Amino acid sequence: MQPRMIPSRPVTPSPTRRPRAARLVAAVGLAVSMAVGSVAFGTGAQAADNPYERGPAPTNASIEASRGPFATAQTSVSSLVTGFGGGTIYYPTDTSQGTFGAIAISPGFTARWSSLSWLGPRLASQGFVVIGIETDSIYDQPDSRGRQLLAALDYLVQSSSVRSRIDSSRLAVAGHSMGGGGTLEAAASRPSLQAAIPLAPWNLTKSWSGVRVPTMIIGGESDTVAPVASHSEPFYNSIPASSEKAYMELNGASHFFPQTSNTTMAKYMISWMKRFIDNDTRYDQFLCPAPRSTAIQEYRDTCPHA
């Protein structure tokens, strides 16, 4: 992001003409002052333009790395909490940059958080607070998982030990399989969310025309549990074009691609979350024009709206 320059105010000429040497010293001093001020202003202007921006400027290598620029810690959440089955919170240890956005993530049918736990520190190290939830029952359906995702977010910002680190206006959801179906349920019922990422989502409901939350759906080309033709693709198509949305289909991926470390999936999850939770337009470059890779079978999107 380029710093904005503020035109200098016109200087009223002095009626008394100073000696040439004095004028030269004054001019040099003014030039140095302006140069220093310009650097300082550039940093301040960037922060003023987007107070939610966190971390250094991204590169392809930085968003493909297994860890981002923030050191992280984690803490457990008891199964005795209300509204979901407990889980694990991952968070940046740095408090010097202010609060962070938060993401709740649900596992799929019969699965536990451990099946997705690699995602926790990976996303947190990019500047997010992440809660990976355990569901009330491993057999919970998408609508229940959607409610539990929202309950987990409410717990994060109201009761958790890291609540002071979170900006309650910048929240998002994600999930795998029925957790992905639950992600759509949560997005439809809480339009104030900043982002949603269903992973290989499964849901009997096919139309999500009411979703206004920026949503990236990631499907697997070889998924036989939630085939993209009857799940991810109709879900994506049903979301209005007026909403921010993207669909990425991973080349040759099965239904279980989120359960092992997946650089392509993580790279675009980070880019989407950064762009819409943090309003960080530095990540536009990774989302538009549409990414092309041998790992990606297909990509559709609306491109982030200006």
From TrEMBL:
Belongs to the AB hydrolase superfamily. Residues 46-304 form the PET hydrolase/cutinase-like domain. It is an enzyme of class 3 (hydrolase). One of its GO terms (cellular component) is extracellular region. It holds the Pfam family PETase. This is Poly(ethylene terephthalate) hydrolase. It is found in: Periplasm; Secreted. Its main location: periplasm. Keywords: Disulfide bond, Hydrolase, Periplasm, Secreted, Serine esterase. InterPro entries: AB_hydrolase_fold (IPR029058), FrsA_esterase (IPR050261), PET_hydrolase/cutinase-like (IPR041127). GO terms for molecular function: cutinase activity. Its EC number is 3.1.1.101, 3.1.1.74. It comes from the Bacteria. It catalyses: (ethylene terephthalate)(n) + H2O = (ethylene terephthalate)(n-1) + 4-[(2-hydroxyethoxy)carbonyl]benzoate + H(+); a butanoate ester + H2O = an aliphatic alcohol + butanoate + H(+); cutin + H2O = cutin monomers.
